[in-house]
Structures are given as C-alpha cells and as structure tokens.
Amino acid sequence: MSVWDELVGQERAVDELSRASAAGSTGMTHAWLITGPPGSGRSNAARAFAAALLTPDAGEADSPAVQRALRGTHESMTVLSTQKSLISIDEVRALVSTAHQAPVNAPWRVVIIEDADRMAERTSNVLLKAIEEPPPSTVWILCAPSPEDVLTTIRSRCRNVTLRIPSPDAVAALLREKAGVDADTARWAAHASQSHIGRARHLATSPNARSERTFVLDIPRHLTSVGSTIRIAARIVDVAKDRAKARTEERNAQEKERLLTTLGVEAGGKIPPSARAQIRRLEEEQKRRDVRARNDELDSIFIELLSLYRDVLAAQLGADTGRINVDEDERIAKLAAEGDSTATLKRIDVLRQARERLATNMSSALVVEAAFVGLSNPWITD
User: b vs e for 104-123, b when ≥16 Cβ sit within 10 Å of the residue's Cβ?
Assistant: First the structure.
C-alpha cells in the first residue's frame, strides 16, 4: 500500500503535493502551506508528504523509514505541535537552527509546524528569514486552518495546498474498512463528528463517547431556571477539567520525570536549589497547556451544541439539508416547537460568542455561565 493511501479523502491534495515535488525546479519549492478546516487532515497530509520526500525509494507504507516519517520520528524530520495558545519565539529559533543541519539517511530535511496559526507576528518574523533563505536541502511545511491565519509575508513565500473535509459517506466507509465499525455506528459517528476523521473514530470506538455526547445534547432541557443554569454550568466546567486532566496528567508526569532524570535527581529525592527554576518553568508551561486543554474541551461542548441548534434551525425553516444529529429527530422536533428561527439564531450567536471568549483571559466559568444563560433566554443579550 502506498503511503498516500493513508490519507483517505485527501487524494487530490496529496497528488498535487506529489506532482509538484517531482516536477523539478518549476514545481518543487522549499516552503509549503497546507490549509483546511479542522478534520481535513492537515497534519496527516504534511506527514505523508514528508514521508514521500524522505523515502523516495521506499514508498510502501509498511517500510520502517516510512513509518518513522508518519510518526514524526524520522531522523531528518522535525515536527512542532503545541498544546499552548501560542508558539514561543524560542521554539521557532530552535527549529531554524535545526533546519540548517544536513539531512541524515534522506535527500531532504523536513521541518513541519502543525499549528502555524499560533505564532505571534514577532515569532513569524523569525521564521520568515529562514523561509526566504533556506538551505538547499531543507523543506518547510506549515499547517493552518486558512491562508489568512498566517502572516502575509509568510504565506506569500509558500505554495498553498488547500484540503477539503471528506463527505460523511467517505468517513463512514473509512470507519467500516479501517476500524471494523458496524454500518449504523459508522454513519452516526461520521455525521456527529461533522466529517472530522479523528473525532469520528473516537465517537465510533470509545464506549463512553456516545453517552458523553448525549449528556451534552441534554443540556438545553436542564436550563429551566437561573439556579439550574448556574449549577449545570459549574458541572460542565468540572467535566471539561476532568477530561483535560485525563488527557494531560500522564504526559505531565512523564515530562517532569524526564527533566528530573536529566538534572540527576532521583525519584523522591530532594530537589537542589539549582534545579528548582527549571522545574518551575516546566510546571508553569504545563499549567498553560492544561488551561488550553480545558478550553479545548469546553469548545468541543459548544460545537456539539451548535450542531444541535443548527439542526433545530433547519427544521424550523423547513430546510432539507444534511442533518448532523441523525438519530435525534425527537429532540430536534421538540426544541424546534418551543421557539422560532429568530430565537434559535440568537442561541447560535450566543455559542459563537462563547467560543470567541474562550480565547481571551475571561474566566471559563463565567464564559460557560453567560453562554447557558443566553441559551435559556436568548433575549437577555438584546
């Protein structure tokens, strides 16, 4: 199987990358910008393209070199992926230094930045010079939701490849073929995830995923009074914290253990004063990542609610569009009957504002409370 077959639903975009890289001086470039909405497979496309560049004579997906490249562990490949709100300038400077190293066991050195939209302008300017004057054997691959999310001077020096979200039918077929999911569950997960392949796989294969999603879709019916609204908001924040902790706790412990080992501190031993500053910096960085993980969980809850009200609005307008929540006819009909399209549009706007506020320094508890109060009575926002 070719490495490109790993990217179900992205064949055209990957083919464009492959053709351009093989077209000589008129096609190959040293800087690429892969854009597409969440779920379009930006990171997968970047790694598959890197695998093809690094292993031109070993194009089978099961070869060791290709597998290392797909995992991001190839010796001539560097991947920067962050859980923080912003990529630091020091991280980019380290990448620039790495980019000047000669490739090992490959014709190219590939540097991938998976979240290029999370660079401040000052940080982007550090990267700009490296992209303008790259070493002859270095290829930069940047990933972002859209070209507009990257500094103009950066994107003008990159070749842009735009990815599209695959259809729900394609995602359902992938789940059946690759994950052995039954047809009904695959169809439900493909629609519920809005064709986000990773999310669809999680929904289809995690025993608790469906009940967790049902819990979120149940939120509107509990917003019956100010007291119940505040209580459910507090509960949702706690749920988000617990989910984020489950994602980050093990990684945080491993990072601290590795740092202590590097500093020569035995497990359970006393930490010398000279090491405390480094440990404190790590803990502060982990706290920032934990906040980001919690906000990501809250954002996913808002997205689920947006999908519900989108279906409610379609029902109120009599629109014959593809439903996201394919097994929720009764719930959608009940919500549609309780209000009109104007109120539903206001609720959708409340959730949009809540997602924007998560990116600020506003307390997450206040963000959720304000959102749920707005959902319970959208006219309050007038």
Answer: eebebbbbbbbbbbbbeeeb
What's the mean pLDDT in 115-128? 89
Question: Can you tell me the distance from the alpha carbon of 118 to that of 235, in angstroms, rounded to the nearest whole number?
Answer: 30
Single-letter code of the amino acid located at 241: K
Q: Are 143 and 116 in contact (CB under 8 A)?
A: yes
Task: Name residue, tokens 């969440």.
Answer: 38
Rounded Cα gap, residues 123 and 115, in angstroms: 13
State the pTM of this model.
Answer: 0.75
- How far does CA 144 lie from the centroid of its chain? 10
Q: d(Cα 200, Cα 64) in Å, to the nearest integer?
A: 28
Question: Using CB atoms within 10 A of its CB, is residue 73 exposed (0-12), middle (13-18) or buried (19+)?
Answer: exposed
pLDDT over 90, % of the chain: 45
Amino acid present at 75: E
**Beta carbons of 53 and 110 less than 8 angstroms apart:** yes
Dihedral sign for Cα atoms in the order 45, 51, 57, 60: negative
Amino acid present at 130: A
User: What separation in angstroms does the CA of 272 have from each of 10, 275, 278, 279, 285?
Assistant: 52, 6, 11, 11, 20
Give the CA count within 13 Å in the CB-facing half-sphere of 3.
Answer: 30
Handedness of CA 101, 150, 116, 145 (dihedral sign): negative
> Per DSSP, what are the bridge partners of residue 119?
87
Phi, psi (degrees; rounded to nearest 5) at 47? -70, -35
Record the tokens describing residue 134, joined without a space. Answer: 């790259």
H helix runs in the chain, sequence order: 11-21, 42-54, 64-71, 89-99, 121-132, 152-155, 168-179, 183-192, 197-205, 209-217, 219-222, 226-262, 273-317, 329-338, 341-358, 364-376
Q: Is 220 exposed, middle or buried (0-12, 13-18, 19+ CB in 10 A)?
A: buried
Identity of the residue numbered 230 = I
Tokens of 378: 């959208």
Angle at which helix 226-262 crosses helix 273-317, to 10 degrees, equals 140
Tokens, residue 170? 């394609």
Render 111-143 in DSSP notation, one character per residue.
EEETTGGGB-HHHHHHHHHHHHS--TTEEEEEE
| Model confidence pLDDT, tens digit, residues 304-343 | 999 999 999 999 999 877 899 998 999 999 999 998 999 9
Phi, psi of 221 (to 5 degrees): -75, -10
